[in-house]
Amino acid sequence: MPEARPPFSLGGFDHIVLRSADPARLIRFYCDVLGCSIAHEQPKIGLTHLRVGTQLIDIVDAHGSLAKPGDEPLRQAARNLDHFCLTVQPFDEAAIRAHLARFGIAPEAAKDRYGAYGTGTSLYLSDPDGNGIELKGR
User: Fold this and answer.
1) Which tens digit of pLDDT belongs to each residue from 13-30?
2) How many angstroms separate the CA atoms of 122 and 108, rounded?
3) Tens of pLDDT along 113-134?
4) Which of 29, 70, 94, 125 has the fewest CB atoms within 10 Å of its CB?
5) Taking a C-beta distance cutoff of 8 angstroms, is the pair 99, 48 a contact?
6) Cα gap 126→132, rounded to integer Å
């Protein structure tokens, strides 16, 4: 296969879109537990944009006008996302665990993993819809 170079360079993630049967629950999770904020809402189409640093997590109502064939029923077995990784600073495992425990969340054991900024300590948890989240120090 010939080497093909795209006519652009990647600068990172702009946003990720998560479909949810209960978007209000997911929005509360990302805002209350992880500290996101609502950047923009489009209620007519069931879309909420949450700010994560310079990127966004978009929450789409699986019952709304942006629903796609196959959204119903949303099943964990049918998900197409293993996990996504959010950088956190500082990475204080004890403080993170204590915070998550207040919400009844017990993440997996932290360990060093490789990512976009090299090797750093991270841990995994899941959102209410079963999407995997990795919290990683830089």
Assistant:
1) 889 989 888 999 999 999
2) 9
3) 988 788 899 999 999 988 899 9
4) 94
5) no
6) 5
> Strands 111-115 and 118-126, how do they pair?
antiparallel
Amino acid at 13: F
What DSSP string describes 82-118?
Answer: -EEEEEESS--HHHHHHHHHTTT--PPPPEEEEETTE
Instruction: Determine the Cα angle at 12 with ends 119 and 136, to 5°.
Output: 30
99 to 24, 45, 75: CA distances (angstroms) = 21, 33, 28
CA–CA separation, 81 and 76 (whole Å): 10
**N- to C-terminal Cα separation, the chain:** 36
Domains and CATH numbers, the chain: 12-64 (3.10.180.10), 81-138 (3.10.180.10)
Backbone dihedral region of 30: left (phi > 0), alpha (psi from -120 to 50 degrees) or beta? alpha
Pairing relation of β-strands 55-61 and 47-52? antiparallel
